[in-house]
Amino acid sequence: MINFIVHDRQIDENALRLKSSVMMITTVFLVIYLILAVGLAGWWWLWASKQKKSTAEIEDLKIKIAQMADKESLYRQVAGRVEAATTYLSNRDSASAACEAVIKEGFTIEGWEFVSNGPYVVKIAAGSADEVQAYIELLKQNFSRVQPINISYSPTTGWMGEIQLSGII
Amino acid sequence: MNKHKDINNWFWIAYPITAAVIILGCTTFLIKGGVLDLYQMWSKKTTAEEVMQKQQQLQAKFEILSSVDTIGLEEELGYLKEVVPDLRSVWNLINELQLAGNKNDSVLVNYQGAVGDIREATGPAKLAEGETGIRLSAKYAQADIKVIRNILTDLEKMIPLVGVKKLSLNTTGMEMVVEGAWLPPNESSSETEAVLPEFAISLENLKEQIRDYTNMATISGG
């Protein structure tokens, strides 16, 4: 005689095991999903309410600032003029500094051409070609680029040196 | 009876099926953009932070404007208009050239130049391309470079600000082109949401830089 009762009990036990596993997995998924959903909604709500509060304050500030339009205009005029003066001074090539740099004790300057932001040309009268060279060496202390254009001699004027300069140090 | 019992035994399956339908349904609804799509929800923080930043900027602007001393600012503006005039007035420049010459015993032989329109400009307080300050060509009966240096030093330390654009020195004298600073008056434009420029430090530095400059307005009593 075959025992069917034992076989049925085994099927029931398997079904019960499957049921509890599925129920447990479903619950875990559902709980995780609910936590995520509530978290996301709460996070969204938090930032949405912050944005709403800020938007309201912005509108309020805009009205207050608009009421101070005259003050703002005055403030901007001052700021603009400060910027203009500062820019003017920083862009201004100092002619006095360039002039100071070509003056060397013992050398006679016959001519000087200055153009804002260079290059400049200086012309000296000297007793000899060596003296012109000595002047050029001195200029190198004050200018990054020193280039003799013309060194000449004539009995009437003596030695003359014409030197181009740029990049005041 | 037995069949009925079997069906009852499988009722529990409705729970996982319902849960799966809810999870998948809600997720699909969010991803496909139901009330708000997932991206919008995710970017809410960024959007809110942008709005909050704008609010902070406006708050800062409001605080600056609230603390502004109008009388003090008007005084500063008056002084700054002496430094960089809002009118292309040629007289200040001529006075500066004469004063620099007189201080160094040098005669200003002549001056000339196209000064353009003497006008109150409109529009934003920025010089347009090609628009310059007041230019004058001046000639001194002075050929000594040391005296020229002193003239230039004095000239470059004058208010209104002036700069030498070109200079030519020879044995007969010195001729130069000078340009006075000029900035047209600013039209009162105020944009509520625009950030205010910071100038306090620049103003202090500027004042320090031109502290020992000779102010023509003070000399002429104006």
Order of helices and strands of chain A: HHHEEHEE
Judged by helices, strands and strand pairing, the structural class of chain A is: alpha+beta
**Biggest sheet: strand arrangement of chain B:** 1-2-5-4
Largest sheet of chain A: 4 strands, antiparallel
**General shape of chain A:** elongated
Concise structural overview:
Chain A has 169 residues and is of the alpha+beta class.
Structural commentary:
Chain A is an alpha+beta fold and 169 residues long. Chain A is built from four helices and four strands, in the order αααββαββ. Chain A has helices spanning 4-66, 69-91, 95-102, 129-139, and strands at residues 108-115, 120-126, 143-154, 158-168. Chain A has a four-stranded antiparallel β-sheet. The longest helix of chain A has 63 residues, at 4-66. Chain A is elongated. Chain A starts with a helix and ends with a strand. Chain B is α+β, with helices and mostly antiparallel strands and 222 residues long. Chain B has nine helices and six strands, in the order ααααααββαβββαβα. In chain B, the strands form two sheets. In chain B, strands 1-2-5-4 form a four-stranded antiparallel β-sheet, with helices on one face. Chain B has a two-stranded parallel ribbon with strand order 3-6. Chain B is rod-shaped and about 130 Å long. At the A-B interface, α1, α2, α3 and β1 of A face α2, α4, α5, α7 and β4 of B. β1 of chain A pairs antiparallel with β4 (162-170) of chain B, so a sheet runs across the interface.
Topology, element by element:
The complex is a heterodimer of chains A (169) and B (222).
Chain A: H1 4-66, H2 69-91, H3 95-102, E1 108-115, E2 120-126, H4 129-139, E3 143-154, E4 158-168
Antiparallel strand pairs in A: 1-2, 2-4, 3-4
Chain B: H1 2-9, H2 14-31, H3 38-42, H4 44-67, H5 70-83, H6 90-103, E1 108-112, E2 134-140, H7 145-155, E3 158-159, E4 162-170, E5 173-180, H8 200-209, E6 214-215, H9 216-219
Parallel strand pairs in B: 3-6
Antiparallel strand pairs in B: 1-2, 2-5, 4-5
